[in-house]
Specification:
7-stranded parallel sheet, helicase activity, 7-stranded mixed sheet, Helicase_C-like
Length: 770
């Protein structure tokens, strides 16, 4: 079978017997194969390093590997941005191992966003240097949440190359830097793997952790070179530069080979009987469709990964695929499994080996297997729901075709505006450049705790405060008594534990402990800002494959109590909001239309939650009485004059429904231009907002101080609104559904919504803004 036909023939067998007018396939394309471009070994590479790499099967490097490695060896911060399976690891292994071979006291730090990736890269290095005397002193070691205390102590004392993640760098290394003094004093390289993953609030926190790490190393006399690696990121030099606060050069031309890849887009059909909110039609779930594809591909002998967005979804998809196989090919049931974060380390390693050696044919996984774990020889990838960014889509797609042979990628759309838009407008996914990562390390809610950490590590000088853009933050912390000004600079006040107070994965504010009331076991934590939308009484909470229902939320004591339960339904919070404009940062006026970037104060109140069957059908709405929560954040806002709306054909009594529907759709579509999910943002529409005196729509970041998403919406307003118009107008429903204007978190029960006039409104805005 030829490369270019592998995917289409596999898909054809899967769709055998399905009439063309009932086919869920909306688009299919073939990405041509590419040949390798090799180069000679750079002269600076130590012979022992070159020999080790050659012994492991790499006779000559690809050009991008050599170029990036040489830049790093010359002392330049560098970001290598090439495709999945393009050997980016070698680009940092060459300079790092050469430094070790020439100076046994050199140290290096490797940083990854996931434990699985860090463990995989550590294993790769250990295999590369095994049995070589030049590296007997190296002792590469992991230092993460899976590492027990004795091994951590050994690693700190003996390892020259530490493999960790931003969380442990923050809580376990920078906080105790005097104990790491010898390591920091000889720190030559810092590797930041999969750096496109550091975006939003997590990226902003990681940027400040990295900048503080560089500061600590330089205080001890070192001057590390940073090597970033990413398969997919727009403007990689700028992305890594924002993380480390210094100039970076990028290597982006991929010289590695890959086989032909078929990409298919798939839209599940509507369920015959089920009705959603306000009797809207309900599509078959992406998870159930993905399970069917996973089972079909396994039956065809295709080694397949199926990416699912949630941990619960992963488990359900694997179970459903096994049920299908039990009916048609029972001998294959043991060859399908689930993989996700939350499993014990030994269980994860076992599964990774089983995937790599072909013992498992099909695996449902979260994005835990998206990032860099070396899994070779896969034939197919199923993506159940757009993963939020074009970067993540190609990262997941790149898991297939690692033998240089033909492969297939199928993206199954969820019942969501952005998913629906993409499967009907394939160029927006397949031909669009990957997004720029959105980070904002100057967000005062993120910056303030890191300035406390920096001052606790070493006194903050005036020059450093300016470099961190933290003048106002430091002044505020000093006024609060948390920083003390002395001759040498600012010191952290006694008694503070600033390192332990930061949740770099995105939480800001106090923490709510989630506890199993039947066993007193701590299940996890959630920051106060998100507690009322995730652990309200009656909410279904998932923890490492176990399902719980929340019984009580005590905000004063910081406690959410739960009991184990496996309901056949899910929950989603309904909230109402009020928005007050605090400041206008920039605005553009287009006659009757004004578009602005503003700071706002959002008052949210969770008023209830929906219970949904796993099919997506609404079971009921449960009211709640929870306190209001105030959030200061950034928003993109637009206003229109009533006269312009009336002239466009929107009667006065249609204003609320048109604005509300347009707001919902815009929230669902913001992910097209910003690296965010609809759950990262919120919105409000008003036919007469008191702050503007006009019909107004706000879309705001769901994080204190903002996360950069609304700012990106302001910058890309034309593309965003135009795509929103297309998404709504091309949806096949008549009066609005979850694929266009309905929102799963609307506090008003998705009323009023006027799809027809929302299209008119969006086209008016596009025409005025053109």
């Amino acid at each position: 079978m030829g490369q270019a036909t592998y995917g289409s023939e596999l898909l054809g067998r899967t769709l055998a017997g399905v009439p063309d007018d009932a086919s869920p396939l909306t688009h299919m394309a073939v990405i041509d194969s590419r040949s390798a471009q090799f180069t000679d070994w750079p002269d600076w590479v130590h012979p022992a390093v070159r020999d080790a790499v050659v012994e492991h099967g790499v006779q000559r490097p690809w050009r991008h590997q050599s170029d990036a490695a040489t830049l790093a060896a010359e002392g330049r911060h560098v970001c290598i941005c090439t495709g999945t399976a393009s050997g980016k690891s070698l680009a940092y292994q060459l300079p790092v191992l050469t430094a070790f071979a020439r100076d046994p006291n050199t140290t290096a730090l490797y940083l990854s966003p996931t434990k699985a990736l860090g463990t995989d890269q550590l294993r790769s290095v250990a295999q590369l240097i095994a049995g070589r005397s030049e590296f007997s002193h190296l002792a590469p070691s992991s230092y993460d949440g899976d590492t027990d205390s004795d091994l951590r102590q050994w690693a700190r004392m003996h390892s020259r190359w530490i493999f960790t993640n931003p969380d442990m760098l923050q809580i376990g290394i920078t906080s105790t830097h005097p104990r790491w003094r010898a390591f920091f004093a000889k720190l030559k390289y810092i590797v930041v793997d999969e750096c496109h993953h550091y975006r939003g609030v997590f990226g902003s926190h990681t940027a400040l952790v990295l900048q503080r790490t560089l500061r600590i190393a330089r205080k001890y006399g070192a001057d590390p070179v940073v090597i970033g690696a990413s398969a997919t990121v727009s403007n990689p030099a700028q992305a890594l530069s924002r993380l480390i606060g210094e100039d970076v050069v990028a290597v982006t031309e991929d010289a590695s080979p890959h086989g032909a890849r078929t990409v298919a887009l798939w839209e599940p059909g509507f369920l015959d009987e089920a009705k959603g909110e306000n009797d809207a039609p309900v599509r078959r779930s992406a998870g159930s469709e993905a399970a069917r594809l996973l089972a079909d591909f396994v039956i065809e002998g295709a080694r397949t990964l199926c990416f699912v967005r949630s941990r619960r979804g992963v488990e359900l998809t694997a179970v459903r695929a096994k049920q299908i196989l039990a009916e048609s090919a029972p001998e294959l049931v043991p060859r399908v499994a689930a993989y996700r974060a939350g499993y014990l380390a030994d269980d994860r390693r076992t599964l990774e080996h089983a995937i790599s050696d072909g013992e498992l044919l099909g695996v449902a996984t979260t994005n835990a297997l998206e990032l860099g774990v070396d899994i070779s020889g896969l034939d197919a990838v199923v993506v159940a729901g757009y993963p939020g960014t074009v970067a993540s889509f190609w990262q997941q797609a790149g898991r297939a075709g690692r033998r240089g042979e033909g492969s297939i990628v199928v993206m199954v759309a969820r019942d969501d505006p952005l998913d629906t838009y993409l499967v009907h407008h394939p160029d927006a996914l397949l031909k669009r450049s990957v997004e720029a990562t959105v980070t904002d390390p100057t967000n005062p809610y993120v910056l303030a705790p890191h300035m406390l950490c920096a001052a606790a590590e070493f006194p903050l000088t005036e020059e450093e405060v300016v470099a961190f853009h933290a003048q106002q933050v430091v002044a505020d912390l000093t006024a609060e008594g948390k920083l003390k000004r002395r001759k040498a600079g600012w010191y952290a006040a006694a008694g503070l534990d600033p390192h332990g107070d930061i949740d770099i994965r995105g939480g800001i504010g106090g923490q709510i402990l989630i506890v199993d009331a039947t066993t007193s076991r701590l299940l996890g934590t959630v920051d106060t800002a998100r507690a009322m939308t995730s652990v309200y009484p009656g909410a279904v909470y998932l923890h490492q494959g176990e399902s719980f229902v929340i019984d009580e939320l005590d905000l004063d004591d910081g406690l959410a109590l739960a009991h184990p339960e496996e309901p056949d339904w899910t929950t989603s919070a309904r909230e109402v909001s009020d928005v007050t404009i605090i400041a206008t940062h920039d605005q553009r006026v287009f006659g009757p239309l004004t578009v602005a970037s503003v700071s706002v104060e959002v008052t949210n109140q969770v008023v209830g939650f929906l219970r949904k069957a796993l099919s997506g059908e609404i079971l009921d709405s449960v009211p709640l009485d929870l306190p209001e929560h105030t959030l200061t954040t950034r928003a993109v806002m637009y206003t229109l004059t009533p006269e312009a709306m009336i002239d466009a054909g929107i009667a006065l009594d249609k204003f609320p429904g048109a604005l509300h529907a347009a707001e919902h759709a815009a929230i669902g579509m913001l992910g097209l231009v910003a690296t965010c999910d609809r759950w990262d943002i919120g919105g409000l529409s008003s036919a007469l907002h008191p702050g503007t005196g006009l019909p107004t729509v706000f879309v705001y970041d769901g994080y204190p101080g903002g996360a950069g998403f609304a700012d990106r919406g302001y910058e890309a307003f034309t593309d965003w609104i135009s795509a929103t118009d297309v998404a709504v107008s091309s949806c096949g429903c008549t009066a609005g559904c979850p694929s266009c204007v309905q929102s799963p978190k609307c506090g008003n029960g998705n009323e009023p919504l006027d799809k027809e006039h929302a299209v008119t409104l969006l086209r008016l805005i596009s025409r005025l803004h053109a």
